[in-house]
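Journal club side-thread
Mid-discussion, someone asked how the predicted structure for our own chain would compare to the paper's figures. Pasting it here so we can look after the session.
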Amino acid sequence: MLETMNFLANAPATAWTHQAIRKIEAEKNRSADTHLYRVPLPEQWGIQVYLKDESTHRSGSLKHRLARSLFLFGLVNGWIAEGTTVVEASSGSTAVSEAYFAQILGLPFIAVMPRSTSGEKIALIEQYGGTCHFVETSGEIYAAAQQLAGQTGGHYMDQFTYAERATDWRGNNNIAESIFEQLALEVHPLPRWIVVGAGTGGTSATIGRYLRYNCFPTQLAVVDPENSAFYPGWHNGDPNFATGMASRIEGIGRPRMEPSFVPSVIDTMMQVPDAASIAAMEQLRSLAGLNAGPSTGTNLWGVWQLAADMMARGEHGSIVSLMCDSGDRYDASYNDPAWLRAKGLDPAPYARTITNFFATGKWSAQSAQNSF
């Protein structure tokens, strides 16, 4: 009798979970795939560069895919139930996307983030019904999120641990599968390189595993901002490497090697100066009319170096990267010259490097120290 009563007591929670999963899957069904733009390059180079525009997701960034996967992962594991307060440690975009999905499910959401997070992202989190809890440095977000989850009886989503396992790397409409489907009719449908940044490490893990699973010749390059732990940790083979310093490029770079970062699936990494990310972000607007955030600039700084290397080797082919979010989220920061000066970020020398690259097809000695 007791077993029957326990079964009946759990039935409403199971029904709610089934309905929650259905709502998230229905949201995906309503969403078209994101665009894959071809960035204009001189025809004689024989190289095509594509940007997958993740800013067109409903919650506005690449993190929309991750948030959807993390919610499904939490639901099927029984960590999220009706009324559960969801807590996340995030520098912004993941929190925006998770707030969006929490609102769909009618769940309370708390984002733990550095006080320096852009005001535009904070406003979006609150627009979706989320609450922001601020800490002084990015290194404090983990413990604060865990503590808040304990105090509320909620669930700490912990993107930095679960990002690499919440997404099905074999396919199921993940970002890697989408890229290759959209390239099917292009001149070079199997790209020479895919270039991404690392925030949690989930995107690079998904793409790297997908490439190997399908036996594709495509190689994976990961770009990393200065002060981040990913590049030196990968370079030194130290999974516990930490800098203790926050990245100045929102959304990517971490003060420690995160558990979701999988170095073994990465073919090469590049460390990118923060001001170079700004220069490449600004150049994309004039080159292609695409208004992207600074992490997209980090990607492009790596893309241009790889393209120059391909030309130096006489190779033709394609390179794919991501437009992670829109520049509209950074009008009061990275798009503000006064803010850049206050942060000591001068993109001008790096803009000259890019200009020289487009004029000559060669990467200058000035930036060789940042290359792979």
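Post-session note: Strands lie at 36-39, 47-53, 86-89, 109-114, 131-135, 155-156, 193-197, 219-225, 268-272, 317-323.
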